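Annotators were shown the component list below and the corresponding predicted structure, then asked to write short factual statements about the assembly.
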Amino acid sequence: TDLPAEATRDISAALAGLLADAFALYLKTKNFHWHMSGPHFRDYHLLLDEQSDQIFAMTDPIAERARKIGGTTLRSISHISRLQRIADNDAEYVHPQDMLAELREDNMRLTAAMRQAHNTCDEYHDVATASLLEVWIDETERRTWFLYEASRVPPGRE
Amino acid sequence: TDLPAEATRDISAALAGLLADAFALYLKTKNFHWHMSGPHFRDYHLLLDEQSDQIFAMTDPIAERARKIGGTTLRSISHISRLQRIADNDAEYVHPQDMLAELREDNMRLTAAMRQAHNTCDEYHDVATASLLEVWIDETERRTWFLYEASRVPPGRE
Amino acid sequence: TDLPAEATRDISAALAGLLADAFALYLKTKNFHWHMSGPHFRDYHLLLDEQSDQIFAMTDPIAERARKIGGTTLRSISHISRLQRIADNDAEYVHPQDMLAELREDNMRLTAAMRQAHNTCDEYHDVATASLLEVWIDETERRTWFLYEASRVPPGRE
Amino acid sequence: TDLPAEATRDISAALAGLLADAFALYLKTKNFHWHMSGPHFRDYHLLLDEQSDQIFAMTDPIAERARKIGGTTLRSISHISRLQRIADNDAEYVHPQDMLAELREDNMRLTAAMRQAHNTCDEYHDVATASLLEVWIDETERRTWFLYEASRVPPGRE
Amino acid sequence: TDLPAEATRDISAALAGLLADAFALYLKTKNFHWHMSGPHFRDYHLLLDEQSDQIFAMTDPIAERARKIGGTTLRSISHISRLQRIADNDAEYVHPQDMLAELREDNMRLTAAMRQAHNTCDEYHDVATASLLEVWIDETERRTWFLYEASRVPPGRE
Amino acid sequence: TDLPAEATRDISAALAGLLADAFALYLKTKNFHWHMSGPHFRDYHLLLDEQSDQIFAMTDPIAERARKIGGTTLRSISHISRLQRIADNDAEYVHPQDMLAELREDNMRLTAAMRQAHNTCDEYHDVATASLLEVWIDETERRTWFLYEASRVPPGRE
Amino acid sequence: TDLPAEATRDISAALAGLLADAFALYLKTKNFHWHMSGPHFRDYHLLLDEQSDQIFAMTDPIAERARKIGGTTLRSISHISRLQRIADNDAEYVHPQDMLAELREDNMRLTAAMRQAHNTCDEYHDVATASLLEVWIDETERRTWFLYEASRVPPGRE
Amino acid sequence: TDLPAEATRDISAALAGLLADAFALYLKTKNFHWHMSGPHFRDYHLLLDEQSDQIFAMTDPIAERARKIGGTTLRSISHISRLQRIADNDAEYVHPQDMLAELREDNMRLTAAMRQAHNTCDEYHDVATASLLEVWIDETERRTWFLYEASRVPPGRE
Amino acid sequence: TDLPAEATRDISAALAGLLADAFALYLKTKNFHWHMSGPHFRDYHLLLDEQSDQIFAMTDPIAERARKIGGTTLRSISHISRLQRIADNDAEYVHPQDMLAELREDNMRLTAAMRQAHNTCDEYHDVATASLLEVWIDETERRTWFLYEASRVPPGRE
Amino acid sequence: TDLPAEATRDISAALAGLLADAFALYLKTKNFHWHMSGPHFRDYHLLLDEQSDQIFAMTDPIAERARKIGGTTLRSISHISRLQRIADNDAEYVHPQDMLAELREDNMRLTAAMRQAHNTCDEYHDVATASLLEVWIDETERRTWFLYEASRVPPGRE
Amino acid sequence: TDLPAEATRDISAALAGLLADAFALYLKTKNFHWHMSGPHFRDYHLLLDEQSDQIFAMTDPIAERARKIGGTTLRSISHISRLQRIADNDAEYVHPQDMLAELREDNMRLTAAMRQAHNTCDEYHDVATASLLEVWIDETERRTWFLYEASRVPPGRE
Amino acid sequence: TDLPAEATRDISAALAGLLADAFALYLKTKNFHWHMSGPHFRDYHLLLDEQSDQIFAMTDPIAERARKIGGTTLRSISHISRLQRIADNDAEYVHPQDMLAELREDNMRLTAAMRQAHNTCDEYHDVATASLLEVWIDETERRTWFLYEASRVPPGRE
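Structure shown to annotators:
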């Protein structure tokens, strides 16, 4: 690449943080997918499966993008632990509605982190990384929308 | 075609009405698909997406059928407005169960309109248009069935 | 095959019983799929459709397995009636939650019957039939899990 | 649907009878598929497999059609037994040519039953059910043709 | 089939006539496809290829339908010659616009012949043959529409 | 989303306008697709079909994008009528070249409206909406190019 | 093409003859496919269907090859009649084994005609036509092999 | 692998024997496929083609399994000759029914050899090799069933 | 399921351990895939990509199997950290041959852990979990074989 | 290969010339594809796209064929310039009909060059290169035919 | 388009330069793909094939983008020669490692040229061209990464 | 076929020899595929797998070609042994580079044998067999090229 060394350093760092968050959110989404219960079982089980697939699909491109600009990326489970900003949830039982609400929060947090990384890219004119982030922000906002509407309770009747 | 001129005139007119209704119902179904909320969000969001796809798939064949028998068909958004018999619903918030109930009524209305168009075709022995209508009546009755059963509330327990 | 005659006799008998159960469970699952109602209509309608497809997919391999080891298999609807251990349910109305609960019980019963058939195969070293049963037990336990979690009611809020 | 209540009652009843026949014929065709023998083994084994697939493919649409017009449908194996008009055949050995001949008769019987159901639909102007029956009559006549020609013995030479 | 002998005789005869016409029209359409010329070469070459494919796709089902109801069908090129009502055109050069116009006429003639065959089927209540004809009439009217519009010359400007 | 409320308000409004234009342009393109005539019939019929498909493919993503950032979107045919800036054309006959010229103008107008919406997104740093618009601008410019070159008349010879 | 005029004349003529034969053989193979009977019904019905598909697949390339070298090709059913060397068979009943034998002879005759056409191409160094003929000769010899072995009667036992 | 050295030695040896048998049976099945004759030509030609495909599909996994547990496998045609237990048959003419009978015996022999190899795996707890053998035993028993039923002669009539 | 409570407890525990190892090995394989270098770059990059895909494909089935027998499974990144037995490697630079060697060791360790879990399943007659493990052991031994042979240095010449 | 050294030399040289011509013709065809205009815009734009795809598809096989017989092939854009016999056309505006005419000439020139290369192959008995050339000659003659007929002007009427 | 004339002029010029570079780099990558040698032959042969495919896939969109904004683009091989900035390499033998190193440099040069073109687009607010360039920059950086790592020699051991 | 008896005899004999060589080369290529080792393990393992697939794909067409011209073909493993001209290699260890070199020699030998068989076909004007050989010669020369370049050692640096 023809980007300066600081660009490589700062953008790689931003991408490593996003990658750690993506893996942490992937595992939490899977956790809730596996431990779902209640009358909406199949519907939410599928919803979280689709969302986890979409999150997982981001991971390899994030890591490879860091490599393409000459940086390095994540190396291990413990490396994820050190960098992740999405909190773990090891509770034995989580109410289905709480699962959706918690993931909604986490996805909103991820959107903010991505927008911040986009700023870093803008600063260094790394238009290619920025372009990838634009797609992922759109996807993350879609997941947030679904989780938001699914956790709204309609007035009265049901 | 070898059909008489009145056949072309009357059947084209019937098809134009159905086409306007189909577009109006398509947009309402999409409206509810986009603005759905509540615990059944994903399930109903998908249901209405499938139904809107099925309704949309009717539009081109309806229009082309009118052309095949030598008639003309719809030309614009305002043309739809003038012909549609399915009422618009621009309310800011509609309760999910009310969405299903309203669409059920609209689909039943569409079935009746199609059966009437079928009679017109029978009168002029336009067996090809009739044959297409038979498939669309079946599909419309299926959408009605789904919307009907989804809005029945089981006694007591849930 | 090089299995002894008693192996053919006993394993074919076990497979015929499983096949009758599979057809009976298939039809009951379809029955509930067709007569489902309530706000979860589409979700449960699809769930039972997937489950009935999976049950149906077992039937031909069960029958052909009996033929491969030199035995015979089911011949008619009345033959099913005589052998089936899954009870029929001809009620006019069944509450959606009761549908799920009844199928959960039936699938657990089928798991137990399959595990017993597996023992018969072990006895005669019929490793090929045993291998097929292992896959079907896994599938049946998955159906049971889904039906179980879908009928658990989360505390309080919904 | 906008059909009168008697239409729903009579057409559902006709469809339930056809569904029971379809399941009974499906199982008999499978029975002969599984227990076929002789030099034509593979050829007839495949023929009956194709035919059983085609028969099975009718079952869900028949049942759903009854639901779409507001009726109910079959519920269990014993329900099939009570309604089926295709006779069971539990014989230990059936000659291959007799298998073909018996199925040919059964398919002809099914054609007649379908044509009768078509008349019921015509009476109530249920054009959608009628349209589905037209396809199934064509298929049943094709199965009959194949079974008929396959059981004709050419003069002399073979 | 359970249709009377006269039905078999009359409907088979009608189908044989249609089949001869279909083959004759197929070959003429191919003839023009092969010998097309002028600035619209590729466009018309493709148009006639699509139309010939659609015509050819009718031939096997027409023949098999006659067999399904117990009749026989065409046997040779000379058999086609004797029955065809679509005239041959062996001219060395045909103007592209004349090609389209001639085929439009031929397709209109075929529509009329099909509608007549449909009447024969109605008479004998052969609903399955009638149902197939409805689809082919629709397709033939579509080919006529395309050929008609393509040979209209817009006023003045081009 | 983490965008401020004015961003949601202004971008949703911009998207609703574009969506109304997209539906209006879709219907006009279809109108001309259905009522095309002349020696170029098939060629232009296909061209407008491809263009209408491409326009239609934008509609759902435009609507869903508004939802993802917390806004609402179109609700009905009359809602389109109120917002659309693409003029309807209900003329009985339009010359083929005029059809192309009118659509070219409409597509250019749409490009300008999209570029304006892009500015709004830039203002609020909504990089995800901006990214989608970039693709649609490219597509709209491609449609314009095709319509432009197809309506240029080469000097003299043809 | 850069071939001399006599090459175009002679090779086009040879191809027209082959095309007429191909259509005549196609129709005879279909004739026997439609009117097959006896215990081998399905097997031979399928065999002749595959063979007729393969023969039909040759027709367009033969005709287009004549066009590519600047010649013309077949124009109508009667044109086929005048050029075909494969004899028609309009008999009401043909014994299955006689069907296979007759087609075997016809295919052998076609092989000889193709090899002769190949010589004509060699003479004029038309390597491209020759190359196509090589593939079709191989296919025709394969059809002959199948028809030959299928009509050999094994000694004694069956 | 973590299996002991004797396991590698004994299981590799068993797999090499099975691989030699598989290649020998593959070639004999192909031999009969190529040299088949008689009225059942196409049917048996296809049957043996399917069976040879299934046998061939075993060969690479058998060889690779030996490599996975640290052993070696077959190296040449002569290596096959030394290890194969399926006898060659180079006769100029074999009656179709004798072909089926001989292959049935060979497949039964292969089943026995596989079951013995399964015992060797059980002894060393090599559960992965055992699992593969279970699938191949099932397939081999299926081939045996087909060959057995196809060579049974039904009483009297044909 | 019909397994006793201790079976659920012990098998779930064994599966949770395997799942943690699978995720840890997945990430290490990806780490080496991302940070590979040297003349074999593309070859090893692809090798590790294929292996990581295969490892990842195990994770959902392992977790779901625990759920099917009534147990729970992993919940977070830190949960993986607590259970994993595959060591992390966060070194800045690892020689390509050392990467292959380290992964070979890790895969062998995983094989042993799986065989131990298989014993636990045998103890409780959980044949379905055992059957899944057999496939994964085979895959893990294949990965080990590839890594082993790829790190053997041939004598002398290269 | 077992061909003599002069064969490698002469055939490689012939192939290099053809490859240069293919690239030059590819670029000219693309040039006209990109800069097409007039009422036939879409039709000719597509025609030239198909032709350029077909030309491009020849390039890798031509180059690899030279390598297979031990020769070398083209190395750069300037290498093409030195060897190409198809003239460049950098004119700002070319009339659509002139575009077709010029390409027709170029394709005829390419046919002649290929036939000459075929003679070289015949001389050295390089049957494999010859066989590939036969396919490309056929394709080139097809492109010429299309370009020829598309540039013929029908008498009078249009 | 609604861009000013200078935008069309400057962006088209930038795109023409990139297109010439893309063709030149395509041919050089193919050159090395065809003339590769050494123990890594297949691996590098495939690597360069993938890279040349990716480079070629850019060419049509670059040219069409210039057309969409109203500009013109490349016309011939000599036009490429005049504009290309990637140097040709016609050497008889190039060491495999030198091939990779030279292409790495060329790709880096292309990245810089693209980023410069991106600036031109930004200046004129041509967001659609900019968006396409972002994808191609990412791809070019990926090719550079692969070529860079593949040409790093690991210390000591191999 | 219409070829003379000596043609059948001589060409069948030539094909049988080629078939034996093809099977022998197939097994040797597989042998080296299975027993490959060293840093290039995966790359060569895949190379030989592709080559063995290509060789295997020739076998059925060679055998069927002999049958199509009325000859017979191979019957057993020992029949291969008697006819093969490719030597077996049962060595315990073969150096990777020696594997490639040996296969290169074998493929060159096969090319020569095929060219000789082509002469035999030319003599009898069996153009169809000749045509098939041309494709296989090209493939065999390609395998030789790959094996040759992969075993060339670049000077000095690696």
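Statements collected:
1. Residues 5-35 of chain L form the longest helix (31 residues).
2. Chain L has a mean pLDDT of 95.
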